UniProtKB/TrEMBL annotation:
InterPro entries the record matches: Ribosomal_bL9 (IPR000244), Ribosomal_bL9/RNase_H1_N (IPR009027), Ribosomal_bL9_bac/chp (IPR020594), Ribosomal_bL9_C (IPR020069), Ribosomal_bL9_C_sf (IPR036791), Ribosomal_bL9_N (IPR020070), Ribosomal_bL9_N_sf (IPR036935)
Name of the featured protein: Large ribosomal subunit protein bL9
Gene name for this UniProt entry: rplI
Family assignment from sequence similarity: Belongs to the bacterial ribosomal protein bL9 family.
SUPFAM superfamilies assigned to the protein according to its UniProt record, in alphabetical order: L9 N-domain-like (SSF55658), Ribosomal protein L9 C-domain (SSF55653)
Amino acid sequence: MKVILLKELRGKGGEGDIIDVAPGFANNFLLTEGYAIKATPGNIKQLEAKRKNIAKREETRIADAQALKAQLDAARIPVEAQIGEEGQLFGSVTSTMVADAINATLGIEVDKRRVELNKPIKTAGVHEVVVSIYRDIKGTVTVVIGDDPETAEAEEAVEEAIADAETPAEEVVDVEVVED
């Protein structure tokens, strides 16, 4: 059965695409949930009239997805987890936990189904996680479980700089100001 998509359908197509699907899938899901309409000659004619508007919305979506990709690629997301000896986690970090951490850290709402974890993370450390944003656009977010090595190094450098800057009391010399 041929249908015209009204929304993006992951793995099938985007808004305005005409796709061929099984009649049961079309009748039981796509048509009832508002994802598609039947591809009748009248609907196809209306679709042709709306092509410019659909193309503009598509450009906007792609630009937004690229901006979100850049933001995710630059982010380091801390995830809270209980860590045992030798870096093993009690339990595991799931896609839901990663999505919640992205929302808490960056304020970006990410659907847990878009977080592509092949298997749950079971060790502490730094992990790269792929997030599917829109169609073929995917961002890679750095997930930090436990202590972040970069943050720890930066904190140590700041503490050393403060320690070096402090002058012990014995070394302070009184200076008299002589006026002419």
